[in-house]
């Protein structure tokens, strides 16, 4: 299964945004918690100071600045007794209960209580807060929580703007590098690359150019070799073929061994000539002006089968044809190479079986199936490589539709010749 590709720029933006959001949210939470812890610390310090300075006796209550000090728990106000349990309270620790409608509103009431112990002296001190007098309600956005959220959102917005500016500064030369690399071809490959603001991108541009130069040099060398070799081989191949024909015509009947050797030379020269002609076609860097002429596909198939019939001599092969007379304008040399290679491929790789050739208007299909007794047919691609690759490349160069599929016991090939 193919992995989903994502944009590097989008990935970095999302990662930085999530990271900044998490950090700012945590800092805002800690800031709010520390703010309330500071208030609680001030309240606890005040209660400890008052409880240590005022001693109370049994049944006595002392009220100092809205703080109530009592010897026993039952002496505290009923609201305090209902809000807390003395058995669960630790010494000299502040306990509180805040009443508020929601997180964004100011608390309407609060109860604070502490169990004070100093040596053998114990007492309870409480403090109650409530809005006894009507006042203008404080807007929700002035609460500490709202301020913390606002500061956090503002920090995220500022951070996001800075990241976007940085990403734009970085991605602009990267996009320029991508555009420059996409425009490279054989005509401008030797030109010096431009500077891309950042040293790393400029070095990468030099590496890309050097790699493409090396590949282009190697490709050109191979194309020149194929073109020169194929061209130079045509003369000795022609000499070999003419010499074989001359020997066959003027010499007396040769012994069987010599005749078979001469036949193998003739077959090899035919194959070399076909291969050389195909390679010459493929080595052309630009599409040549095709010399099109009317071609009868059925006649071309029959002539190629007749010319290549030596490949299936002394083999148990059954050939079937389904041809219809159809004329189409094509470059005859290229069509001859393609059809000849496909028929040659089917004949060379079938030793005992069937070869089916169908032709309907522009479409030609060739199917060869190997059938050997007591042997289950299997999909085998061994040996099919070069010939079929040449056909595919030639069809691609001429905009012909070619489909090759390996089936059990053989191969299925089809070519649709587009009109020129």
UniProtKB/TrEMBL annotation:
TM segment ranges: 12-32, 146-167
E.C. numbers: 2.7.13.3
UniProt KW keywords: ATP-binding, Cell membrane, Kinase, Membrane, Nucleotide-binding, Phosphoprotein, Transferase, Transmembrane, Transmembrane helix, Two-component regulatory system
Membrane topology of this protein: Multi-pass membrane protein
InterPro entries per the UniProt record, alphabetical: HATPase_C_sf (IPR036890), His_kinase_dom (IPR005467), HisK_dim/P_dom (IPR003661), HisK_dim/P_sf (IPR036097), HssS/ArlS-like (IPR050398)
Main location: membrane
Plastid keyword on record: no
Domain Histidine kinase residue range list: 228-420
Top-rank taxon: Bacteria
Example GO molecular function: phosphorelay sensor kinase activity
Single GO cellular component term: plasma membrane
Subcellular localization: Cell membrane
Catalytic activity: ATP + protein L-histidine = ADP + protein N-phospho-L-histidine
The name this protein goes by in its record: histidine kinase
């Amino acid at each position: 299964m193919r992995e989903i590709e994502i944009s590097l720029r989008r990935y970095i933006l999302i990662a930085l945004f999530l990271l900044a959001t998490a950090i700012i949210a945590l800092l805002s939470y800690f800031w709010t918690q520390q703010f309330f812890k500071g208030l609680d610390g001030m309240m606890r310090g005040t209660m400890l100071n008052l409880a240590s300075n005022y001693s109370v006796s049994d049944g006595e209550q002392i009220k100092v600045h809205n703080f109530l000090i009592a010897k026993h728990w039952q002496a505290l106000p009923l609201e305090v007794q209902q809000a807390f349990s003395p058995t669960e309270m630790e010494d000299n620790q502040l306990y509180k209960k805040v009443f508020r409608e929601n997180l964004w509103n100011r608390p309407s009431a609060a109860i604070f209580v502490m169990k004070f112990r100093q040596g053998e002296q114990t007492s309870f001190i409480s403090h109650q807060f409530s809005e006894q007098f009507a006042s203008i309600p404080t807007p929700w956005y002035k609460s500490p929580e709202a301020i913390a959220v606002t500061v956090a959102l503002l920090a995220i917005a500022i951070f996001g703007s800075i990241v976007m500016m940085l990403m734009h500064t970085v991605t602009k030369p990267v996009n320029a590098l991508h555009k420059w690399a996409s425009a490279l071809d054989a005509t401008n490959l030797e030109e010096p690359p431009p500077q891309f603001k950042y040293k790393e991108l400029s070095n990468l541009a030099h590496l890309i150019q050097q790699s493409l130069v090396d590949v282009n040099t190697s490709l050109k060398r191979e194309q020149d070799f194929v073109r020169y070799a194929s061209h130079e081989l045509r003369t000795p191949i022609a000499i070999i073929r003419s010499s074989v024909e001359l020997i066959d015509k003027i010499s007396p009947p040769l012994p069987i061994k010599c005749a078979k050797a001469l036949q193998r030379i003739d077959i090899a020269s035919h194959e070399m000539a076909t291969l050389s002609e195909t390679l010459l076609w493929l080595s052309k860097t630009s599409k040549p002006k095709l010399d099109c002429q009317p071609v009868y596909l059925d006649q071309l198939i029959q002539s190629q089968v007749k010319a290549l019939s030596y490949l299936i001599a002394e083999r148990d092969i059954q050939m079937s044809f389904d041809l219809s007379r159809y004329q189409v304008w094509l470059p005859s040399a290229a069509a001859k190479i393609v059809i000849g290679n496909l028929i040659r491929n089917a004949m060379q790789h079938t030793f005992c079986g069937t070869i089916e050739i169908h032709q309907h208007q522009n479409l030609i299909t060739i199917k060869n199936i190997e059938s050997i007794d007591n042997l289950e047919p299997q999909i085998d691609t061994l040996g099919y490589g070069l010939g079929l690759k040449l056909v595919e490349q030639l069809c691609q160069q001429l905009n012909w539709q070619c489909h090759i599929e390996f089936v059990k016991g053989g191969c299925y090939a089809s070519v649709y010749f587009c009109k020129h």
